[in-house]
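hey can u run this one w/ zinc ion bound, need the structure tokens asap thx
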Amino acid sequence: MAKIAPSILAADFANLERDIHNIEENGGDWVHVDVMDGLFVPNISIGIPVVQALRPVTRLPLDVHLMIQRPIRYVEQFVKAGADWLTIHIEADQPENNLACLDKIRFLGCKAAISLKPGTPAEAAIPYLDKCDMILVMTVEPGFGGQKFMADMMPKLKTLRAMLDERSLKCLLAVDGGVDGITCEICKENGADVLVAGSAYFKAGDRRAFVERFHR
Ligand code: DX5
Ligand code: ZN
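ok here u go:
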């Protein structure tokens, strides 16, 4: 049993309200919002005004994935815009700023999460374990939807699961990138609690049945 967070990066940007209502109707748990600045990743997507516009459209948690340099500069604005979860990349700033950023997110009443790019080892999460509510393991290089799932990230997922369990931490473990109705199984087997799915969700012929695969 895992939660599914469909990523609106693969939605129709001219019909976001419709597509988010569709996520609700099909039993999706969270709405994943990918924010890209063209610096941390080689792509630009959406930002604060879009989060603000989506807030009144849904009661589902808004899970905002910040793929931006030095995220501490913007977290307050994202929380005020309505984010329920804010994920920062630990590669996007110095450790002391990341720690301060996580404290700031929690102080503002939002759930704080860290994300690890494929090249970042599980051990890099250790300094942050007490300060975060979720760890997001990237199974593609961040920046674009529709890429191939990197199954070689599964040992990292398993290591993180063990780290959290050994310490009896309630922190959730999430996976993002190339997750579909097949790859969701191996993610669940290796301890994932939350699965982000962009293209596979929006391409699914029967989205309700797709969501059920994640919930099983
Ligand atoms: C990639 C984003 C993902 C993306 C996933 O940088 O963080 O959330 O939307 O898309 P799919 O599921 O198509 O790989
Ligand atoms: Zn994402």
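The chain is about 35% helix and 20% strand. anyway lmk if its weird
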